[in-house]
TrEMBL record:
PANTHER family per the UniProt record, alphabetical: PTHR47908, TETRATRICOPEPTIDE REPEAT (TPR)-LIKE SUPERFAMILY PROTEIN (PTHR47908:SF2)
Domain of life: Eukaryota
InterPro entries with a match to the protein in the record: TPR-like_helical_dom_sf
Name recorded for this polypeptide: Uncharacterized protein
GO-annotated cellular components: chloroplast
Length: 230
């Protein structure tokens, strides 16, 4: 299963330089159990022809020399958009760092709708949805109708049920994304039962079950992290 490849059990003593790189945001430390199941990037075999910037990211993941500094420089220059790091930080409850990562990525790619939404999700956990919306990252027009509607819902406030209804008879991928982001919207509002309903539905959709889309795997990881049965 694709989701299993991006789940790993770590202890609080595990040192991943990329996840522990310096942040310009004040860091609030959250207590974690001794062993925690989290969402982390899948690491492919290294290509010896990688550019300097990509090599910096690789060394950060694998613990190469001076890896934290090199990775931070590479990320801040926008050489590599490392969305997976931000997602990992979200599931570690390290929301300040996650928000910073997504803001760095959007600064490099101002048309990334999902990075904008995930930044909001991190900041909503810190200060509430109303405050997070005041500093919402505005991005360019997404070519996908479902993501345009999801973006407007997060940016302006809206009804997740209408989002799902709008795409319930559309393409399989559209229903999946509508359900996933409806659930995430409810999570930002601390409405756990409705968040569970829609994210589980996204996993059980045809697209969620059959696609190798990274976000389909993320939806499954989300359920595992919340102890929701599929």
């Amino acid at each position: 299963m694709a989701a299993q490849r991006i789940i790993t059990s770590i202890t609080t003593n595990t040192s991943n330089p990329l996840l522990h790189s310096p942040s310009t945001f004040p860091i609030t430390h959250h207590s974690l159990p001794t062993t925690t199941t989290i969402f982390t990037p899948h690491i492919p075999p290294r290509n010896t022809k990688l550019s300097t910037s990509v090599s910096g990211i690789w060394d950060a993941i694998t613990g190469g020399p001076d890896s934290s500094r090199q990775a931070l420089i590479a990320i801040r220059r926008g050489m590599v958009l490392f969305r997976q790091r931000g997602l990992s930080l979200y599931y570690l409850d390290r929301f300040e760092e996650g928000a910073e990562q997504f803001r760095i990525d959007v600064a490099q790619n101002p048309n990334d709708t999902e990075e904008s939404i995930w930044c909001f999700l991190c900041e909503a956990q810190l200060s509430g949805a109303a405050e997070a919306r005041k500093q919402f990252l505005e991005v360019g027009r997404d070519p996908r109708p479902v993501m345009r509607e999801a973006y407007n819902m997060f940016k302006d406030g809206g009804d997740p049920e209408k989002l799902v209804d709008m795409f319930s008879k559309g393409r399989e991928s559209e229903y999946f994304y509508a359900s996933l982001y409806a659930g995430l919207y409810y999570e930002s509002q601390n409405i756990a039962d409705k968040a569970k309903h829609h994210i589980v539905a996204s996993c059980k959709s045809l697209y969620g079950e059959r696609s190798d889309d990274y976000m389909a795997s993320l939806a499954k990881v989300h359920c595992i992290c919340r102890n929701w049965e599929l």
